Amino acid sequence: MEPHRDDVVSTRPTKVYSDDQLAIEIPETAHQISSDSWFQVGFVLTTGINSAYVLGYSGAVMVPLGWVELHEFGGKRHIRYRDLAGFIYGPKAYSLTWVLQYVNLFMINVGYVILAGQSLKAIYVLFRDDNAMKLPYFIAIAGFVCGLFAICIPHLSALRIWLGFSTFFSLVYIVIAFALSLRDGVRAPPRDYDIPGSDISRVFTTIGASASLVFAFNTGMLPEIQATVKQPVVRNMMKALYFQFTVGVLPLYAVAFMGYWAYGNDASAYLLSSVSGPVWVKTFANISAFLQTVIALHIFASPMYEYLDTKYGIKGSALAVKNLSFRIMVRGGYLVVTTLLAAALPFIGDFMSLTGAISTFPLTFILANHMYLVAKRNKLTSLQKLWHWINVIFFGFMSVIAAVAALRLIAVDSKNYSIFADI
Prior knowledge:
The chain has helices spanning about 40-50, 55-60, 80-90, 90-125, 135-150, 160-185, 200-215, 220-225, 235-245, 250-265, 280-310, 320-345, 350-375, 380-415; strands at about 15, 25, 70-75, 75. It is mainly alpha-helical. The chain has a two-stranded antiparallel sheet with strand order 1-2. Helix 1 runs parallel beside helix 9 and helix 2 crosses helix 10.
């Protein structure tokens, strides 16, 4: 086998040895696979879960790892979620999963652009609270910067040092948000922790918050991330997941609970808008939130980029004229659409709820559990089968009612705010 080169990625099906030393066929892809350490993949996962979305969990949220072993199934390496679903269920499931996953990732990216715009607006308000620049303007600026980053970074594995910057930026805004919230909470009078609104409104708000909570632990692109990890895949992926769900989740919980404790039901959808403190400190936090959001968006847009690059044969040097112009046109166009929707409907909490309901619930819990049932049906005990069926039924029910709740929230906010609202 030829030595691996970073600037050349084969798109021909190849065979590698799996964890069990069996030859496994790998499908075509224009991006790199089996090239990253578990530590780098752990940072990719942690970057996603501790993105600037954590600054919205206090106000929007507070109120499954079975498929890791299915990456090689039936003699094939499944580097995409839709590939695995299609292999187990057939072509219709491939198409359905493709739609669900890309709706999921697209809506996550819409939320990221909204967050990036909110962080830029928060900086502006610190220095000039004259209402001359509206949120949609800042969202447009954020979308442009995200487009530049997408053009410069050809694939997920190329993030490398940027993951280190992302971790630093995350620590900055998390530590600052936590510290300033703690100070405000100590000084503040008693807060109201009751869920606001009428009884029916409280029910829908609580259901929507459950969908947002699931959204926080979104693993709807786990197979794509797992495809980048070095052999042995299962062992290294489990290390990365343990890292994510131990060390990785601590900042999320710290910010979410501290923000809710400090401000009660008055917690802002963007926590840095609620905190008080020195202007330079809040500016530093907002700049960090903006830059980290740009990096995190690229992670969740990578499956779309990989699909398009592979479909149109974009391979070889990232600086080749053909490849560079393709990224400018295609990735730029994708982010123009994303930015336009983000500016038109900048309701970040509603997007978190709706995304959790219509795509995160099905992808993370319903489909993943059922795929595991189908793939391992002859190896599972009756108790194991019962457990997975309970998950399928319960989260199927939750998906439906959470979607209704999220659509109701969007309808209510649409009455209160006009399109391209400045909120």
